[in-house]
Amino acid sequence: MTRPRVEDAPSPARAPRRRTRVPRVRALIRHALLIAAGLVMVYPLLWMIASSIKPDALIFREPSLLPTETDFGHYADGWNALSHPFGVYLMNSAVVVLGALLGNLVSCSMAAYAFARLKFRGRAFFFGMMMLTLMVPIYVLIIPQYVMFSKIEWVNTFLPLIVPKFLATDAFFIFLMIQFFRSLPTELDEAAKIDGAGYWRIYFRILLPISLPALATTAIFTFIWTWNDFLGQLIYLTKPELQTAPVALRNYVDATSGASWGSLFAMSVVTLIPVFIVFLVGQRYLVKGIATTGMK
């Protein structure tokens, strides 16, 4: 009987190295794929920023992100290219966004508190009806809503874009806050009731202060969606002095017949700056809010 040679046996020092190399290679491949996908997704944005400082003749002729010639005059020309300075449209967008933001934070948090913490007859039925509204396309509601707002003479005002937010019409944010409120221990409510607190005091003094992640998530999504909204603002705001930034960007093509693309891209970059600032400032709250609202 032959004994196995020592050199034929696997080295105890080499096996762990081989096992550790495989996860590292997989991690490198995964990160390389994520970086490549990220570059593909961010390329249109980088191209728009580069095109905003290119001469009009080179925008579609040079697809490179490094322009051979620069023209920063598009920002000054685009700011005053329409009937009103572009700052007017930015202010109109800010008014609509702030109104929608306040409305969603107040009404959606109240509705979520009622569904998550209070017991009343028909709660399951009304909750189901609220969830069904998420399945209704917005295009089905545009015509009846426009007819209703036209009869009460709200067209060409900011009211159709702000007032519905105070009536808890965004079921997505209600559901998001319901999930967060349900993750909080009910002992908080019971302890507050023992101390003599009512429903309103529990809502304002106990639940809202610890609901900052959910409120921040609602605020960030409301800001981004309202700021970038085009269809609703196009329908209800037809006067030039009332138009918002997304609607004003469309007018660059009509006013210049597609000739001044540099001004259009420059004002598009200006319009995106508030979105980037809000996302960067509230990023940690956004991640924390999404993580905590998925606990239950």
TrEMBL record:
Ranges for domain ABC transmembrane type-1 come to 90-282
Identify the main location: membrane
Carries keyword Oxidoreductase?
no
Example of a GO cellular component annotation carried by this entry: plasma membrane
Q: Where in the cell is it found?
A: Cell membrane
Membrane-spanning intervals of the chain: 27-50, 89-113, 125-146, 158-181, 202-227, 259-281
- Matches recorded under InterPro entries: MetI-like, MetI-like_sf
What keywords are annotated for this sequence in UniProt? Cell membrane, Membrane, Transmembrane, Transmembrane helix, Transport
Q: Which GO terms describe its biological process?
A: transmembrane transport
Recorded topology in the membrane: Multi-pass membrane protein
Source domain of life is Bacteria
Q: Which family does it belong to?
A: Belongs to the binding-protein-dependent transport system permease family.
Q: What is this protein called?
A: Sugar ABC transporter permease
Taxonomic lineage per UniProt? Bacteria, Bacillati, Actinomycetota, Actinomycetes, Kitasatosporales
